């Protein structure tokens, strides 16, 4: 595995375990199922990998992985499990949780040998080197730690971004492993069946930043919610003032809050660390494309929390309880 500058706020690297898991997902039913719910163009490497592997639905490793997916295991859990393997030999270097099938690691290792994936990845090395370089162009100037620290205590010291040209092809996966906060993300999606953009395309810079910063923010937020059970139920007694388009995309209160938080966190970063132009463009696109008319109000509410944290609010959980009230007030103010 190769890495980015040691002084970068976000380390960029290619992870062979992520590539292997992405290739395994490619030959499960996952790609077809996700296209039904969210049609989109995938990277040419993902298409070529599926073609190279062919129909492997009866392969024992694929059957085992498909069974885990059918049982509802999350992609975050799958990629976290892959981190238990050595990055070159794929031997277990850390015990898997007790609920994991005892032969899963050996089966994954055998799948890699049978399919000669290492040779395939070596042959297509240029695609991964390009993705790594594009990602470095985005993240070598990123400064996420200072913003995250204004919302969360104990932000992991190491933030990592891993470009993913395989699957999942439509969203990021963020895991916390061995003290590292790791975002695994595809290139920014284009519209319809068009291929994805380059990570560092100027038109998509905000979305490369969003995939990582939003992913880090949501994982840290989930940790806070796990440590404070009942907060969501209490806050959800008051509906969030979102429109029907946004409510249809994110039906539950928790989903709505997580998405608003991630998008507003990115908007804050763009305004404070990139440029007012990027901030305004990001907000305008989200209002038009995803009906996030409440985004400017959410940014205002989050700025208020940043000022009052440590004084009025001891933890972010305290703030979440009053978030609906503050957002309604902010909506009125923004709409004046």
Note down, in words, how this protein is organized.
The chain is mainly alpha-helical and 336 residues long. The protein has helices at residues 16-26, 30-37, 44-53, 60-70, 75-82, 104-115, 117-123, 125-139, 145-148, 205-227, 231-235, 244-249, 253-274, 276-289, 295-308, 316-335, and strands spanning 10-12, 158-163, 173-177, 180-185. The protein has a 4-stranded mixed beta sheet. Strand 3 (173-177) and strand 4 form a beta hairpin. Helix 13 (253-274) packs across helix 15 and helix 15 crosses helix 16.
Can you lay out the helices and strands and say which pair or pack?
Blueprint: E1 10-12, H1 16-26, H2 30-37, H3 44-53, H4 60-70, H5 75-82, H6 104-115, H7 117-123, H8 125-139, H9 145-148, E2 158-163, E3 173-177, E4 180-185, H10 205-227, H11 231-235, H12 244-249, H13 253-274, H14 276-289, H15 295-308, H16 316-335
Parallel strand pairs: 1-2, 2-4
Antiparallel strand pairs: 3-4
Describe this protein with a few key phrases.
336 residues, mainly alpha, 4-stranded mixed beta sheet, 6% strand, disordered N terminus
Largest sheet: 4 strands, mixed
Percentage of residues in strands: 5-15%
Query: How does the helix and strand content classify structurally?
Result: mainly alpha
**Order of H and E elements:** EHHHHHHHHHEEEHHHHHHH
Strand order of the largest sheet: 1-2-4-3
Number of separate helices: 16
In short:
By secondary structure, the protein is mainly alpha-helical. 57% of the residues lie in helices and 6% in strands.
